[in-house]
Amino acid sequence: MPLEWLVADPDRLVKTALLGTLSYAALIAMLRVTGKRTLAQMNAFDFVVTVALGSTLSAILVSPEVSLAQGILALGLLVGLQFVVTFGTVRLGWLGRLIKNEPRMLVYRGRMLDDAMRGERVAPAEVHQALRASGILSIEQVHAVVLETDGTFSVIGDEPAGEPTALGDMRRPPPR
What we know:
Number of helices: 6
Number of strands: 4
Distance between the termini: 74 Å
Strand order of the largest sheet: 2-1-3-4
Largest sheet: 4 strands, antiparallel
Strand content: 5-15%
Helix content: 40-55%
Order of helices and strands: HHHHEEHHEE
C-alpha cells in the first residue's frame, strides 16, 4: 500500500510551520489590541466568532490556496467585526438587543417560573444543581435564579433589604 498520504512535501511542512507561527502571532496581537471583551465569557455571537477564527486559522495552516496575507486579512476582518459589533452594542441599545440574548429569571422569591424554564429548556434539576453550587439548600432561601446571556446561572440569595438593583435589566414576574 502506498504511503504518500503519510509523508508531506518538506516545503509544505515548512510553509505550514511558518504560516502557523506567523498567523498565530498575528491573531494574538489582534486579540491583545481589541481587549478583554473579545475573550470574555461567550454568548452566541462570541461563539460564532470564535468558531470562525478557528476555522480561518485552520484554513491558513492547511490550505495551499490561502496566502499568509489573505489569512491575516481574514483574521483581522473577523476580529475587527467583533470589535465593531461589541463597540456598537455598548453604545446602541437596539444593536445590543438584536445581537445578544437577554438574561431570563427562572426562580423568583423561592418559586420556579415554569413558563420561563420551559421557554429556556431548563430542567428543575439544573436549577437545583446551581443552588447546590451556590451553597443553598432550599429554594425558599432564594430571591432569584437568573439564566445569564452566556448560559450560566446566577443565584441571588435571601431577599435584599432594598431594591434589587442587580435585577434592574430584567422583567420581573408579578408578586405572588
